[in-house]
Design brief:
Elements lengths: L5 H9 L1 H16 L26 H18 L1 H14 L4 E4 L4 H15 L10 H15 L1 E8 L2 E2 L2 E2 L5 E6 L17 E2 L2 E3 L5 E9 L5 E8 L3 E5 L17 H22 L3 E4 L8 H4 L1 E5 L5 E3 L16 E4 L7 H17 L4 H4 L7 H40 L12 E4 L8 H14 L4 H7 L4 H22 L59 H15 L9 H16 L9 H11 L6 H14 L13 H8 L2 H20 L2
Antiparallel strand pairs: 1-15, 2-5, 2-10, 3-4, 6-7, 7-8, 8-9, 11-14, 12-13
Helix pairs in contact: 1-2, 3-4, 4-6, 5-11, 12-15, 12-20, 16-17, 16-19, 16-20, 18-20
C-alpha cells in the first residue's frame, strides 16, 4: 500500500481531509493499473534505464565479464568441469561426411578434409578438432571468439593463393581491444565496423603483448573473418559471457566455502573444552594433572592423550569433547542452490553438471534428454557460423587448385557427432532394434545417432563377410563355423498358389507335416522393384548395432568354455559315426568358443535357452559314456558356458531395463 511522504504528512496534520484524499489518490494510481510491476514502490528500486543491444558501456562490461569468467575457469572446479563436459559431449570426436552423390568423389573430399584438419591452425599448434573445442569453450566463457581465414604462406604481406587455407584464432579481448573511445559514429562498436546499412564490413583485431598491452590493430574484411557468438538480443554484434548472470553467485560461493573451510579447520584443532564456575583457568596446570612428578619433582602437565589416562580437575570444573556440526545440511542446500543456478546459466540440468546420485532413473533419463537438446542446439550454431563455412572454403580451394575433382553438390554433406549421453544403453539398443524392424527408423539414423557412418559400417561389414567366405574356401570349412553371423540365408520356401476347391488345413495340423518333396512351382512375377531386407540381413545389422552399443560387458567365452569345447570336438572325432552328437550349428558354436570370438548378445541368449532345455540330458544313460548329449552340452561350453551365459544374459537384461 502506498504511503504519504514527509511533506504530505505535515500538511495532513493541519488538514486531515487532504491527507485522506491524497492517500486515496495514490492508491488509485498504484492499485488500479494493469501491470503492477511497471510501478516502483518503497521496497523495490525502479528498473534500469532502457538500453539497446550495444552502448557506450558495452565494451567495458564485456571486458569485465571476460576477466571474471576466466578467473572462474582458472580457480573454480565446477565452472571448469562444466566447460569441459560441454565441449566433450557436444563435439567429442566429430567428423564430416560428404554426400555429393558420387561415392568416389565423397571419399576424396573426406580424405582431403581429414588431412587438412591436422594442419588447419595457422600457428601450427592445434588441429581443427582442438580449435573447435577451444572455440566452443571460449564462446561460453568469453561470449565470442573469432577466426581469420588466411593462407599458409604470404609474400610482402599478401597471402599466396597457391598455398593452403589456414585459420588464425582470435580471442574475444583481442577483437576491438580492451577499451573503446566514446564516439558519435554509429559505424563502430566493440571492434566491429559497419556500413550505413548496419552490415559488418570489417573487424579490428589487436595483437596482445606479454605485458597485456593491445597494439598493432589490423582491419580484417568481414569476408575473411568468422565471429562465433550466441546473441541474446537482435541488436547485439558481440557476444556476452554465459556466466554473466551467475558470476556474483560464484564469487559468493567461493567466499562462503573459504569461510566454512576456516570454521571446519578451527573445529578440528579443538579436541576438548574445560568448563568451571569462574569461566577462566585459575590453574591451567592442574586441569590435566595426574598428581605425578617427573625426575626433578615438577608436576606433570599432560599435553597428549594416553590409553587409560585418569585426569584430575578442580572442584566445579568439567571436561567435554568439542563437537562441531560444520558443515551443516543447510550449507549443503546452499551449495546445491548455487550450482543449480550455474547449471541454468548454461541451459543444462543440475544432475548432468554436478550430481546424479540424488535423482531417480526417470529423472536422470529426462535430464540426459534435456542436455542432449542443448548440445544439439550448439552443434547447429557451430555448423552455421563455423563448420560449414570453413569446410566449403577449404574444399572449394582444393577444387580450384586441382587437388580434388569438382562436383555439382560439393557443399552437400553432414556432420557426425558423438552419441547422446544415456544411462540406458541396453534399453536404447532394444528400442532401435524394434523401430528398425517396424520400419520407423533407418539404419543410417541409428548409426548416425551413435556417431558412426552408416555406409562405412556396411562397407566394413561386407568386407568381413567377403573375407570370411574366402577363409572358408581356403580351409575348406563352412563359413558359419567362423561365426554364426556369416551363416548363409536359407532359400525361402516357394508358396503354393491358392487353388479354388482345395481343402483348408486345420489350425492344429499346421507345422506337424513332414518336409514336402521339392516340387517346381511357377513363381509369380514381382509387381514391385523395391528390394526388401531379409530377416538374416536385418539380424546381422541389428547385431552390429547392439555390439557397438554394449562395450562394458565382456562377451568373449571364458577359458573353461574353451576347454569344454575342445574336449567335445576331440571326443566327437574319436566316436563312431553312429555315436557322434552335435549339429552343424553346435560345431560352429564350438569353433567360435575355441577361437574366443566376441559373441553377439543374441547368441548368448540362444546359448542360455539351449542349456535351459538340455540340462535334463545329464540324467541320460549315455551321459557318463560321453554320448551325444554330453558332446552337445560341452560343445556349447559345458557347465562353464551355462554359468557364463546366465551371468551375461542377466547383465543384458539389466541394461535393457535401465538398472
Amino acid at each position: 500500500m502506498p504511503q504519504l511522504n514527509l511533506l504530505e504528512k505535515a500538511i495532513s496534520t493541519i488538514s486531515p481531509s487532504f491527507g485522506i484524499k491524497r492517500l486515496a489518490d495514490k492508491c488509485k494510481l498504484t492499485e488500479f493499473n494493469r501491470f503492477a510491476a511497471a510501478y516502483p514502490n518503497r521496497d523495490r528500486r525502479p528498473s534500469r534505464p532502457l538500453s539497446g543491444g550495444e552502448g557506450y558501456t558495452a565494451t567495458f562490461e564485456r571486458i569485465e565479464l571476460i576477466k571474471a569468467a576466466r578467473e572462474l575457469e582458472d580457480n573454480n572446479p565446477i565452472i571448469r568441469s562444466i566447460l569441459l563436459k560441454f565441449s566433450q559431449y557436444a563435439l567429442g570426436n566429430f567428423r564430416y561426411m560428404s554426400r555429393t552423390g558420387d561415392r568416389q568423389i565423397d571419399q576424396m573430399y573426406e580424405d582431403y578434409w581429414m588431412s587438412w584438419c591436422k594442419r588447419a591452425d595457422f600457428f601450427g599448434r592445434h588441429s581443427f578438432q582442438t580449435l573447435s573445442h577451444l572455440a566452443l569453450r571460449s564462446t561460453l566463457r568469453d561470449g565470442d571468439v573469432g577466426f581469420v581465414i588466411t593462407r599458409e604462406n604470404s609474400e610482402n604481406g599478401i597471402p599466396n593463393p597457391e598455398s593452403e587455407i589456414r585459420l588464425q584464432s582470435v580471442e574475444a579481448d583481442r577483437i576491438g581491444g580492451n577499451f573503446d573511445n566514446p564516439t558519435s559514429s554509429q559505424n563502430y562498436i566493440g571492434g566491429v565496423m559497419f556500413d550505413d546499412n548496419g552490415r559488418a564490413t570489417a573487424y579490428k583485431v589487436y595483437r596482445r603483448t606479454q605485458g597485456v598491452a593491445y597494439v598493432a590493430p589490423q582491419e580484417i574484411p568481414a569476408s575473411s573473418f568468422l565471429l562465433i557468438y550466441d546473441p541474446l538480443r537482435l541488436d547485439e554484434v558481440r557476444g556476452r559471457s554465459h556466466l554473466a548472470s551467475v558470476i556474483n553467485y560464484c564469487k559468493d560461493l567461493h567466499e562462503t566455502l573459504d569461510a566454512e573451510n576456516m570454521a571446519v579447520k578451527n573445529a578440528a584443532f579443538r579436541t576438548m573444552v574445560v568448563t568451571n564456575n569462574l569461566g577462566s583457568a585459575d590453574d591451567p596446570a592442574s586441569y590435566f594433572n595426574q598428581g605425578e612428578t617427573d625426575a626433578y619433582g615438577n608436576l606433570m602437565n599432560l599435553e597428549t592423550m594416553q590409553k587409560g589416562q585418569i585426569n584430575y580437575l578442580p572442584t566445579g570444573a568439567e571436561m567435554k569433547m568439542f563437537e562441531s556440526g560444520r558443515p551443516s545440511n543447510a550449507f549443503h542446500g546452499y551449495v546445491d542452490m548455487i550450482i543449480h543456478m550455474i547449471a541454468l546459466a548454461f541451459n543444462l540440468p543440475y544432475g548432468f553438471c554436478y550430481d546424479l546420485a540424488k535423482l531417480g532413473g526417470p529423472t536422470v533419463r529426462l535430464e540426459m534428454a534435456l542436455a542432449a537438446r542443448t548440445f544439439r542446439r550448439w552443434q547447429g550454431i557451430l555448423e552455421e557460423k563455423f563448420f560449414d563455412r570453413v569446410k566449403n572454403i577449404v574444399i572449394a580451394d582444393a577444387i580450384s587448385r586441382g587437388i580434388v575433382p569438382p562436383a555439382k553438390n560439393f557443399m552437400t554433406g553432414r556432420w557426425i557427432y558423438p552419441s547422446d549421453p544415456t544411462i540406458d544403453v541396453g534399453r536404447d539398443s532394444q528400442a532401435n532394434i524394434s523401430e528398425f524392424k517396424a520400419g520407423l527408423r533407418t539404419a543410417s539414423e541409428i548409426y548416425g545417432s551413435k556417431g558412426e557412418d552408416y555406409e562405412e559400417a556396411l562397407r566394413q561389414r561386407a568386407y568381413e563377410v567377403k573375407y570370411a567366405s574366402e577363409l572358408s574356401k581356403e580351409f575348406e570349412i563352412p563359413v558359419e563355423s567362423i561365426s554364426e553371423a556369416f551363416k548363409p540365408n536359407p532359400s525361402p520356401m516357394p508358396q503354393m498358389p491358392e487353388v479354388s476347391g482345395m481343402p483348408e488345413v486345420a489350425e492344429g495340423d499346421k507345422g506337424a507335416e513332414e518336409e514336402p518333396e521339392q516340387v517346381e512351382i511357377p513363381r509369380a512375377k514381382r509387381t514391385s522393384s523395391n528390394k526388401s531386407v531379409s530377416l538374416r540381413e536385418a539380424e546381422m545389422i541389428l547385431d552390429a548395432i547392439e555390439m557397438q552399443s554394449i562395450q562394458d560387458i565382456d562377451l568373449t567365452p571364458s577359458d573353461g568354455m574353451v576347454d569344454a569345447a575342445k574336449a567335445a570336438l576331440r571326443v566327437r572325432a574319436e566316436k563312431p559315426a553312429s555315436e557322434r552328437g552335435m549339429t552343424q550349428v553346435g560345431i560352429a558354436r564350438a569353433r567360435d568358443i575355441i577361437g574366443k570370438k566376441r559373441l553377439s548378445p543374441r547368441t548368448w541368449r540362444r546359448m542360455k535357452a539351449f542349456f535351459d532345455r538340455h540340462e535334463v540330458d545329464k540324467q541320460g544313460s549315455s551321459w557318463d559314456e560321453q554320448g551325444r548329449g554330453w558332446q552337445a552340452w560341452n560343445g556349447w561350453g559345458g557347465d562353464a558356458g551355462y554359468s557364463r551365459a546366465k551371468k551375461i544374459v542377466a547383465q543384458l537384461n539389466k541394461l535393457r531395463d535401465g538398472e
